[in-house]
Amino acid sequence: MRRRDPVAPRRLNLRLDSDAAAARPAASPVARPGRRRPSGARAGRPRGRLIVVEGIDGSGKSTQIQLLRKWLEARGHKVVFTEWNSSDLVRLATKRGKKKNLLTPTTFSLLHATDFADRLTYDIIPYLKAGITVLADRYVYTAFARDIARGVDPRWVRELYAFAVKPDAAFYFRVPLDVAVRRILGARAKIKFYEAGMDLGLSGDPVESFRLFQGRVLEQYDALTGEYGFRVIDGTRSIDAQQRQVRDIVRRLYDEEGAVA
Amino acid sequence: MAARKRFFGHGLPYASVEDLKGALITIEGTDGVGRTSQVASLKQWLEVQGYGVIETGWTRSELMSETIMAAKAGHSMNQLTFSLLYATDFADRLEKIVIPALRSGFVVLADRYVFTAFARSVARGADPAWIRNVFGFALVPDMTLYLRIDVDTLLPRILQNRRVDFWEAGMDMHLGTDLYESARRYQWRLIREYNRLAREYGFLSIDATLTPEEIQAKMRRRVQALLEERRMQTLTDNLESLRPLLFEDAEETPRPAAAAPLPVVDPRRGRPANPPDA
After folding, report:
1. Chain B hits for A111, Cβ within 8 Å
2. Residue A20 near chain B (CB below 8 Å)
3. What range defines the domain where residue A76 resides?
4. B73-118 pLDDT per residue, tens
5. How many domains would you assign to chain A?
6. For residue A22, pLDDT beyond 80
7. With a cut of 0.85, is the ipTM above it?
8. Domains of chain B
9. Cα(first)–Cα(last) distance of chain B, in Å?
10. Which CATH number goes with the domain that contains A130?
11. d(CA B164, CA B155)
12. Which chain A residues touch B95 with a CB distance below 8 Å?
């Protein structure tokens, strides 16, 4: 059972071969182009698909992934959902660090990597092995975009996440900065300190800081698009139009192995 | 003169290490080898001579210490999160304590350093290149004192004083249900990693089977030589300016939000560069 997916995100190794592999991250993901060896193949059971959505705050990605989830479930797929920065392991430290403004770009990055490692171990890899589709609202690319925008070394953060599993599809919901800012300001009473990148001292005004910081993040996403083969979705189109585009791509992920279509 | 500090890897692009005048001395060695009490004696000895000394120890960061304790109490840590929790703790202490102290001309004594993370992670099956990269933001120390011991001397010595805990025995690695045998195998692996690192990074090894007094004397000689070579200044006449670093709680005024270094006056300002009596 060999699959080739020329537009799948590259450069993160799929580490489902064995437990030992999961415990032994690649030295340099950049040095090894992605190869996929679904472990389920050995057990005669199809591996679950890993589908991730990315985009700046206000890009509409969370709406899209929830619609996708309902659609997949309606078609009989087993699906779980995991969200960025949601593990219990570092929740207190993150909360404390944010509340007291203790975080530096590096500790911010490492806390999120710890959170991700915990969820990868408990909430992602076992499900994929069990043949269950995992939908992730934000993935390692969020760390790449935000942490680089905060000033950490781009090589360092990529190597930090070398243990990550390569997704089957990474959707990037691209919206112009103004659209995102308008959506966020319309929906929320207050922009959060770190969300606005206030820790970087770009501007004393939260809205202006948000604009500047998210602008940097947007630039990073655009730069990552080619490198990781994001499926770019125009986030200014109607919700329905975007969802149709997403479903067309996801459908093919399953069709290729003759699974439920 | 202070040698210019370097990072192990890609470093902290947003932090300047141009003006780190202090000396970073790290003390390594496995669990129960007597590291912490040796560091305390060393600190006292340096302070009596008038050096400004800051001690920093593993898992003692403001950001992470509670989280790490909770994670160790539960058993949900795996090799990845184990490594990353310690890396976060280390980064917090490096940026909030070590770098500002070095900038102010302090002697920083680190009870354990990145090498402990390397040894423990590799003993648990992590890729050595990966864990080194994770800690690529760390400063290369000016000197690493390594308390070297063999496992069959170590374990009876620990057991005379206290019990061996779950993590020291590497029980998370499922090496067996017999605590002593597990500890022996795990500590053997750890010591092997430390010994490899000692060669790779040029540690100054000290025989930890000697008496505590003999060990301390050897450590002091090494430290003295380094400080003389670096012409480190004593700081007695600048105590006021150093108060914020020495007594963290004494400073009640709110600090700036970001990771700004503490506003400490350069202790060497106004003094002749490298006076002969340094």
Report:
1. 88
2. yes
3. 35-255
4. 876 788 899 999 999 999 999 999 999 999 999 999 999 999 999 9
5. 1
6. no
7. no
8. 23-237 (3.40.50.300)
9. 11
10. 3.40.50.300
11. 8
12. 104, 106-107
